[in-house]
Amino acid sequence: MQNETELKELVREKYGAIASQSKQQNETSCCGATASCCGDEVYNIMADDYTKLEGYNADADLGLGCGLPTAFAKIKSGDTVIDLGSGAGNDCFVARSAAGEKGKIIGIDFTEKMIERARENAEKLGYNNVEFRQGDIESMPVVSNKADVIVSNCVLNLVPNKHKVFSEIFRVLKPGGHFSISDIVLEGILPVQLKQAAEMYAGCVAGAIQKTDYLAIIEETGFSNITLQKEKKIIVPDEILLQYLSAPELEQLKKSDLGIYSITVYAEKPAKDERNCCEPGSGCC
Question: Is residue 282 domain-resident?
Fold first, then answer.
């Protein structure tokens, strides 16, 4: 697998291409959960249905998530909400329906084409309290103690340095603020053929880490009241797996204890940080 810089460029390239497509194009070209034909991509098999959530906008839904974090995020009127990996703006627009006109919504995305599409969507909707910023969520273009709530949908697994991202989330949240994040995690060992596949990385599988490690990073960062809000098992179609595994290897995988899961995790930044520690990201924490 590539180094961190190469992985980021892979993500930028793949999601830049997806930004120019509709949800329907993504589903037909990327093998949706019920599709009978597959390319060598795995972007849409994890998505949950957003269509019943208030604030949903079809133009902003590319079907790329693995949960409904905004539905679990306990957003209140007037909140400042930041969405990490905001894509075409789907979660931002749902968050705005909860935060209202007095709220402030900031979407951050690594991919220029996604930012362009999200801004176009916001302009069409006439939302003047929804802003999109291009940036790396390992070093967010946001001042400290800004957000009441942070959400993210199937994005942190695309970031090589997950410790750094959670440190940034801690920095940007206000004391007493919280996050609700959906992500892909593992239980058991992912075969090396899948772990080294660029498409499986961009599709949120190869970059996933063990569930216990994921939750441990959140705790180590200093968050409290860590709660698993939802969990579902992800089934990757055989048609995709057979592009990386032989038939006998696939049968062996099915007999193994590997589990790929989408989890939605909630956690709070303590109102008072009593760790006797400097700010995350400063190098001495």
Answer: no
Q: In the chain, how many domains are there?
A: 1
Domain carrying residue 116? 4-238+257-268
Q: What is the CATH number of the domain that holds 124?
A: 3.40.50.150
Token pair, residue 214, equals 């994921």
**What is the model's pTM?**
0.87
What are the pLDDT digits (tens) for 41-72?
576 788 899 999 999 999 999 988 999 999 99
Residue closest to 261 by CA, chosen among 218, 235, 232: 232
Would you state the structure tokens that stand for residue 70, as one six-digit string? Answer: 């905004």
Is the residue at 183 inside a domain? yes
Quick check: is 37 in a domain? yes
**Count of Cβ atoms closer than 10 Å to residue 161 Cβ:** 11
Residue 58 lies in a domain: yes
Closest CA to 69 of 202, 183, 168: 183
Closest CA to 84 of 76, 75, 92, 94: 92
Question: Residue 62 to residues 27, 54, 276: CA-CA distances in angstroms?
Answer: 9, 17, 43
Greatest C-alpha distance within the chain: 57
Question: The tokens of 155 are what?
Answer: 């994005």
